[in-house]
Amino acid sequence: MSADDQSAPREPSVDEHSVVLHDRGAAIEQSDAFENPGLPPHRPRQTDLHPHKERRAERQVVGWFLASMLGSVLAIVAYIAVPIELGNMASVRANNLFLGLAIALGLLGIGIGAMHWARQLMSSHEVVEERHLTRGSEPSRARAVEIFQLGDEESGFSRRSLIRNTLIGAIALVPLPAVVLFRDLAPQQDAVEAIAHTMWKPGTRLALDPSGAPIKATDVTMGSAFHVIPEDLTEIGHNEGYLDQKALAAVLLVRLPPEKLHEEPGREGWSYDGIVAYSKICTHVGCPVALYEQQTHHLLCPCHQSTFDVSRHARVVFGPAKRPLPQLPITVDADGYLVAQRDFTEPIGASFFERLHHIDPEHVPLTAAETETRA
Ligand code: FES
Question: Are both 162 and 259 inside the same structural domain?
Fold first, then answer.
């Protein structure tokens, strides 16, 4: 021991400290916080004591699973038998009511049946599970298998084949309404076919949106932009697809000095005295192109700023769009009104793979290098 150790005061040990406290009457008795109360004595249920009550509980469980199966089937029947009619709110309410009730029965039947099975028929013996490492030792894993087998034996999952099979049937049927409902979200007709053609046909007059007043070539002043619809669109009611047809056929009409138009071979006859018509639906993702800058002859889509040059067949000069706006070939009729020569020669709107299958044989593609690379 060094000289320093000998001279330093020694700290009392814990035991010595306790003795000192005890002598002063200030010690605290240490004891267990609480005693393990153990499990209450097991109380058998009515179904454990009386076989006829056990059989009745079994029938009730089967009944709930059968009710679930019935609910799932009824959901499909309700969806077909009570359809939603366009514009009829009463049909929407009736459809939702019956569909909701039937699906609720399908789900509740499984839930109540499973609860009833667990509470009345499965083993109710309390067990204590000791905590252990996440991955048990081989003996404990073997014990787990044993417990599973015991659970199967006590729950009667394998033995009570009627309950098990009705449960499997109920679980198998419960997703069916979702399958039918989600399938019906798809368009009823070929989606591409639905947007491949518009109302424009030979001789259809170009009319002002929304009044439907036909437009004479002499009405179109230099530098102005007209929002145009087919004249016969106004004969379609709002519940008969007016907006759908308008979204396909909407056109922008612009007049330029004829010498400013750079028309490609094959498209010279698609304009009339400097008046050109282009689809209003952006070829990026379908916003309405609505802004016209008369000095530059540019049409601007407000959504993502795609810019189209009207003087060059609405080719893309800026932005994410990848192809020009489709051009509507126009001319005038005997009364001087602007009319369509035919429908668009290519599908309007956003580009998509199947679009290429619907390009008309009379379509005249643009030849400029920029357009070729973007098309
Ligand atoms: S929709 Fe027109 S630029 Fe995106």
Answer: no
CB-based contacts of 38-45 (< 8 A; 24+ apart in sequence): 39/126, 39/128, 40/126, 42/124, 42/125, 42/126, 44/124, 45/120, 45/124
Task: Among 301, 317, 318, 348, name the best residue to mutate to test ligand 1's pocket (greatest count of ligand atoms within 8 A of Cβ).
Answer: 301
For residue 2, being part of any structural domain is answered with no
C-alpha R_g of the chain:
40
**298-307: average pLDDT:** 94
- For the Cβ of 304 lying below 6 angstroms from any atom of ligand 1, the answer is yes
Given 3-state DSSP classes, what are the helix, strand and coil percentages for the chain, each rounded to the nearest 5? 45, 10, 45
Residue 179 lies in a domain: yes
Q: Is the pLDDT assigned to residue 26 strictly greater than 70?
A: no
Going from the Cα of 283 to the center of ligand 1, the distance in angstroms, rounded, reads 7
Per-chain mean pLDDT for the chain = 86
| 296, 237: one domain | yes
Q: How far is CA 36 from the centre of its chain?
A: 53
**Displacement of CA 50 from its chain's centroid (Å):** 52
Last residue of a domain, one of 183, 212, 233: 183
If asked whether residues 217 and 299 sit together in one domain, one would say: yes
Question: Do residues 176 and 199 both lie within one domain?
Answer: no
- Residue 19 is predicted with a pLDDT of 55
Does the residue 36 lie in any domain? no
For residue 36, name the pLDDT band (cuts at 50, 70, 90).
confident
Whether pLDDT at 106 is above 90:
yes
Q: How many domains does the chain have?
A: 2
Same domain, 369 and 227: yes
Q: Which atom of ligand 1 is nearest to the CA of 282?
A: 2
Other CB atoms within 10 A of residue 307 CB: 19
* Residues spanned by the domain of 75: 46-125+141-183
When pLDDT is cut at 50, 70 and 90, the band that residue 17 belongs to is: low
Q: Is the pTM of this model over 0.85?
A: no
Atom of ligand 1 minimally distant from the CA of 287: 1
Q: What is the pLDDT of residue 210?
A: 86
277, β-bridge pairs: 253
